[in-house]
Amino acid sequence: RKGLPEGGKTLILMGEKEGENNAEFIRATANIFHVNTLKATRANTWDVLRNERVLMSRNAWEELREKY
Most buried among 32, 37, 52, 67, using CB within 10 Å? Predict the structure, then answer.
């Protein structure tokens, strides 16, 4: 948990191509308590609302803007 604020959940959104290129990152974050990692195109409103913090790459932001 070093580097993460205390309390709450964190959602990390990655772009479609980033998720393919960073499979190790996704596996590593799966082991961190209160951290979820998803591809941006697979995230829904509930995924965003149930987390206190949402971190995303620029590519993820662009993909979400195109989708919604």
Answer: 37
- Of residues 18 and 32, the one with the higher pLDDT is 32
Q: Which two tokens stand for residue 54?
A: 């949402």
- Provide the 10 A C-beta neighbour count for residue 15: 21
CA quadruple 60, 12, 49, 52: dihedral sign: negative
3-state SS record for the chain: CCCCCCCCCEEEEECHHHHHHCHHHHHHHCCCCCEEEEEHHHCCHHHHHCCCEEEECHHHHHHHHHHC
The mean of the pLDDT values for the chain is: 84
Diameter of the chain by CA atoms?
34
Exposed/middle/buried for residue 57 (C-beta within 10 Å: 0-12, 13-18, 19+): middle
